[in-house]
Each structure stands twice: as structure tokens, then as C-alpha cells.
Design goal:
Length: about 70
């Protein structure tokens, strides 16, 4: 019974750690005010898109927009 309780406690802690890691990852990739993905998020997505385009020998178009003095 003790080992089951220890295993259960470990699983609960691992799940809490998993949730905390996902929340931290979200916070590092999104603007806290708007929830919009930031440059880090864009860069990660762009890497995936570029790798896929290279593998499939396709061209892609990238358009960047910047909003100055956004408050």
C-alpha cells in the first residue's frame, strides 16, 4: 500500500510539473497583454515551415508586419 501511495504521489507531482512546463512554454512564446505569439513563437513556427518547404522542395512567401508604439 505504501509503494502504491508513493507511486501515486510521484505521478501527481510529474503531472503538475508537466502542466507547469506547458504554462511556462506558453508564457515564453506569447505576449502577456494580447496573448499573441511573440518573436520566439514566430521563429519556432518559421523553422518548422522552412524545414517542410525544403523537404518538399517548395517555395514559400514570408510577410512581416510591425506595429510601432503599440500600447
Amino acid at each position: 500500500a505504501r509503494k502504491n501511495a508513493e507511486l501515486h504521489a510521484r505521478l501527481v507531482i510529474e503531472e503538475q510539473l508537466n502542466i507547469a512546463n506547458k504554462q511556462l512554454e506558453y508564457k515564453t512564446q506569447h505576449d502577456p497583454l494580447t496573448g499573441i505569439g511573440n518573436r520566439r513563437k514566430m521563429s519556432a513556427q518559421l523553422d518548422i515551415i522552412l524545414k517542410g518547404a525544403i523537404e518538399q522542395q517548395q517555395y514559400i512567401t514570408i510577410m512581416f508586419g510591425d506595429v510601432d508604439r503599440f500600447n
